Amino acid sequence: MGVGGANETGGNESVAGHGATGGTRTGGSSGAAATASGGTAVSVSSTIAAGGSQPTGGNAATGGSMAIGGNTATGGTTTAISGNTATGGASSTGGNAATGSSKTTGGASTTGGSEATSGNSGTGGTLAAGGKSSTGGGKATGGATTTGGTKATGGATATGGASSGNCSTPPAPSSLVGWASVSGGTTGGGDAAPVTVTTLAELQSAVKGTTAAVIYVKGVLSPGVVTIGSNKTIVGLCGAEIHGHVGLNKSSNIIIRNIKIVGYAVGDCSLDPSYSSATGCSSGDDAITVQGQSTHLWFDHDDISDGTDGNLDITHASDYITVSWTKFHYTPRKDPVGSDSTGDLGHRYSNLVGHNDDNATEDTGHLRITWHHNWWADNVVERQPRVRFGQVHLFNNLYTSTASDYCIGVGVGANIRDESNVFIGVKTPVNTTSYSDSASAVRSTNNVYTNTTGAVSDLNAGSVFDPASDYSYTADAASSVQAAVQSGAGPM
């Protein structure tokens, strides 16, 4: 057990998965803080990749056969007859200009194209086609007000859209920065042909083994356990969600991005199949557990919440990992056995790095993790992250959980570079007193602290590693972090 640190095990972070206890933490205050100045401000910018290409009008919205003058909207018998307002007169006749002729079939200037692109509900198809609802008749057709449909033929302005585009093609990933880019990098399934899954069983099958695969997840998958092999890229489409528990054990070369992962414990920890009434929430599953020397992993633009124990725990000598543009949070829930310091919302400890204080032999020289542009948000109490051993780099992250006991926990053997992060309304942004020992080191530079409580101090700052010697990065100015992370973290 490390000096000054509670021997706090990570629950299901043990190799077996569920056997380790949730760990009681006690005070302890060795590893006295030293006030160290300096630290180099480095920083800016990851690019939030835009969503994939959006489908333009194409065939469905061109008016084509459905929106041409025809029976309904022509200058013929029913709607746009050659009457007073939308007759076959000069500007909006049902004749030469607005008839089913080649010039304005579906609208010359906006034939389901540039302004009213394809998309399901507002396309030039079923709803806005020259057919039933928005035909060449009354309001947006070749009739009275917008003849030929200068603005609304082929669908108004809400067609296509970002989310519609994501239903078939995912947004591009961010640029890979950090430890996952080192020593060969992280490529996941590479250029393997994508396979789309829509059920838990299909996903469970697709992620097995070591064959390279690119897997698109669509829909909300029923709760269960997903165990991921190696050489996989898993990408969410259309607001996809995986519920239950995702496990990586001895896995390598994995990318998980643009997806929402929700643990078992929504509202009540006892809903977790692994829950123990003897020890409470900490006996249950994380939303994601990384262990067993898993290596070269990249979590990008994810939303991870409501793990019974943790949201994303990384233990047992796992290595070369980047977590970027991801949101961590909890919904209010009960722990029937006990509660955290807030008294009623249960165990909400988000991210543990390193299994316990006694695991130095396995973990030393591993647990190299970069966290950047992440958001620790609602109801997170601790571990944002809590670190044992390894070299952990945190830059351009946002902390806003007013329920926090602390944010960054400096544990036994931890070596942490903390720079250009933003802490708003939280307690103890950097906890150097509860878990550290004489080998622990942290350097905090260029951070913004707004309405925070609790001391912020460096610990053995001179011995902190320099990430710039291992990979290239540029940290954004801390003043820009809140807006960028709140708008960009999570699935796109």
Structure notes:
It is built from 6 helices and 23 strands. The protein folds into 2 domains: 54-165, no CATH class; 179-488, 3 Solenoid (Pectate Lyase C-like), CATH 2.160.20.10. The protein is globular, with a radius of gyration of 28 Å. The chain has helices at residues 64-67, 70-73, 161-165, 200-206, 360-363, 481-488; strands spanning 194-197, 213-228, 232-249, 252-257, 260-262, 288-291, 295-300, 303-305, 312-314, 319-324, 327-329, 352-353, 369-372, 375-376, 386-387, 391-395, 398-399, 408-410, 415-419, 422-424, 430-431, 441-445, 448-450. The chain is mainly beta.
Tags for this model:
492 residues; Pectate Lyase C-like; 2 domains; 6 helices
Give the CATH architecture of the largest domain. Answer: 3 Solenoid
Q: What sequence of helices (H) and strands (E) makes up the elements?
A: HHHEHEEEEEEEEEEEHEEEEEEEEEEEH
- By CATH, the superfamily of the largest domain comes out as Single-stranded right-handed beta-helix, Pectin lyase-like
Biggest β-sheet strands, sense, barrel? 19 strands, parallel
Overall mean pLDDT: 75
Class computed from helices, strands and strand pairing: mainly beta
Low-confidence stretches: 1-9, 11-165
Question: In DSSP terms, counting alpha (H) and pi (I) runs of 4 or more, how many helices?
Answer: 6
User: How widely separated are the two ends?
Assistant: 42 Å
- Give the number of DSSP strands: 23
Q: Which CATH class of the largest domain?
A: Mainly Beta
Helix content: under 10%
CATH overall fold name of the largest domain: Pectate Lyase C-like
